[in-house]
Every structure is written in structure tokens, then in C-alpha cells.
Design goal:
The protein is of the alpha+beta class and about 130 residues long. The chain is built from three helices and six strands, in the order H-E-E-E-E-H-E-E-H.
């Protein structure tokens, strides 16, 4: 956590966040703000505490290279942490290559797993 607003309840200890922020500042790093999610972790128990523990921090050079940089939070289905997706805004396919696609239906198709294993184990050039 960096700031008191990064915790939904309970005491906020300033010692480690102050040190963390000092390191970020001294290295001229910048946090990419997540617009769609305030907290990224949910504590255990009946009285849940939410905290922002996960974040994306980049150098200013990296941010200048990718000015359209965004961070998206995804659904926290199987973990107590929220997965984050970093989008650079850059094209992911070049030289006429098609973008990667994945269909969930492939997972239930007969022979899918065997096909993936065979492809991964085969020698491939290029």
C-alpha cells in the first residue's frame, strides 16, 4: 500500500508505505492508475478488509515509449488478488500477422489437449 485510501478499514501503518514511496520517487517511477478498481486484495474472515496491494509501476522512459498505457482489473474468481492486465496501446501484430485468438469452446473439444501437447513438443522454425 502507498496511501491510507489503499485500505478499506483498520489502521494504516505509514512506515513501509513511506519508504516504498521514497524509493518510487528516487527512481523517478510512476504508477499507472487503475480507473475501474479501487482495491486489488480481499482479506480473509467474516469482516473483510480490502487493500490495494497490486499495482503497475513503470519508468518515465517506458511511459514515454507507450503513452497509451492503461491498466485493467479483471474478475477475482479464484484468488484473493485481482488480476491486472497491462495494455500498452501498441499493436500486438506486425508484418501481416494475425492477432492471437483463443476460444473457450476449444477446451471442451475432443482431442484439444493432445493437439496442444503435440504442437508444443514439435520442432518449429521461425
Amino acid at each position: 500500500m502507498r496511501y491510507p485510501k489503499d485500505k478499506s478499514a483498520g489502521d494504516f501503518e505509514y512506515k513501509w508505505p513511506t519508504l516504498f514511496n521514497a524509493v518510487i520517487d528516487s527512481l523517478d517511477l510512476r504508477e499507472i492508475v487503475m480507473i475501474d478498481c479501487q482495491f486489488t486484495w480481499a482479506g480473509p474472515g467474516d469482516d473483510l478488509t480490502y487493500e490495494k496491494l497490486d499495482r503497475v509501476i513503470v519508468s518515465t522512459d517506458w511511459e514515454n515509449k507507450f503513452p497509451l498505457l492503461t491498466v485493467e482489473a479483471r474478475d477475482r474468481n479464484i484468488s484473493d488478488h485481482t488480476p491486472l492486465i497491462l495494455n500498452t496501446g501498441a499493436s500486438t501484430h506486425q508484418n501481416g500477422q494475425h492477432p492471437f485468438k483463443f476460444e473457450r469452446g476449444w477446451l471442451i473439444r475432443d482431442g484439444f489437449y493432445d493437439m496442444v501437447v503435440n504442437i508444443w513438443q514439435s520442432k518449429n522454425s521461425g
